Amino acid sequence: MTSRIRYVSLLLVTGLGFGLFAVAPARADDALKTAIASDARTPGQKARDQYRHPYETLTFFGIKPDMTVVELWPFGGWYTAILAPYLEEKGRLIEADVDPETAPENYLSYNIQLQKMLTSRPDIYGKVETVHLSPDKPLLPAGTADMVLTFRNIHNWHWYGQDRKIFEQAYKALKPGGILGVVEHRADDPDFEPKEMGQAYVGTQWAIDMIESLGFKLADQSEINANPKDTKDYPIGVWNLPPIFAGGDKDRAKYAAIGESDRFTLKFVKPE
């Protein structure tokens, strides 16, 4: 082998070696997997993993066990049951529940559900903090949070004219470089604005534009929570689908076969 051939071969091997290092997958988050498998979660909660993909979703957002994480409107605490044990040792979990002064009264029962869950297992939830999510009051002292999460809430906030103010509070609460993770029911029209109470689907681009107009920058988006079976043409919208089955037994098998709604998953960053 001539010296030129040896040189070219060395470049190829070296380049391949660097390439392998560059594309190596991220290390699995065993602590997150353990939290998802925790006995703090009910069988009913775990049954929804096939639709909500908690491991893939949270790793996509970039969660770490030493972060201060805020979840907006956790409702009954589906994600709380994962986040609490995951963040218990090194991190901090703050659940921003429904504000009694500004939210519709019919939403307040979710606070009761959440508190019942938190008090049921002090060994798991003893360190979880709660605050009220108000569009008019600071969520936390400015620059406190590493990550803010919201799952399927934009339509509610927009219907009551609170979405922009709530995302403004999230922006202030985050540290520079902090992450906003968003999951929402996806409308077929990317520019669809959910102006009136309806089927709860939201346009992806409309949501991106609204959130970016408040200072956030879209960092990435994922199809983790997509569901192509969701035709989005049901009498009661997403509530016809599991887990609600708002239509009762009517066409229940049909909706069960579809599964939960088609959803977009967006990762935003507060600029440094």
Instruction: Identify the CATH class.
Output: Alpha Beta
Give me the strand/helix succession: HHHHHEHEHHEEHHEHEHE
Secondary structure category? alpha/beta
Rough shape? globular
CATH architecture tag:
3-Layer(aba) Sandwich
Strand order within the widest beta sheet: 3-2-1-4-5-7-6
Q: Supply the CATH superfamily name.
A: Vaccinia Virus protein VP39
Q: Indicate the proportion of strand residues.
A: 15-25%
How many separate structural domains?
Answer: 1
- Determine Rg (CA atoms, Å): 21 Å
Number of helix segments? 12
Q: Into which percent range does the helicity of residues fall?
A: 25-40%
Low confidence ranges: 1-24
In round numbers, the mean pLDDT is 91
Distance, first to last CA: 52 Å
Instruction: Provide the CATH topology.
Output: Rossmann fold
Number of strands: 7
The major sheet is characterized as: 7 strands, mixed
Please give a structural write-up.
The longest helix has 21 residues, at 3-23. Helices cover 38% and strands 18% of the residues. The protein is globular and about 45 Å long. The model is unreliable at 1-24 (pLDDT under 50). Helix 2 packs across helix 6 (80-87). It is α/β, with parallel strands linked by helices. The chain has a single domain (29-269), classed as Vaccinia Virus protein VP39 (Rossmann fold). The protein has a 7-stranded mixed sheet with strand order 3-2-1-4-5-7-6. It has 12 helices and 7 strands.
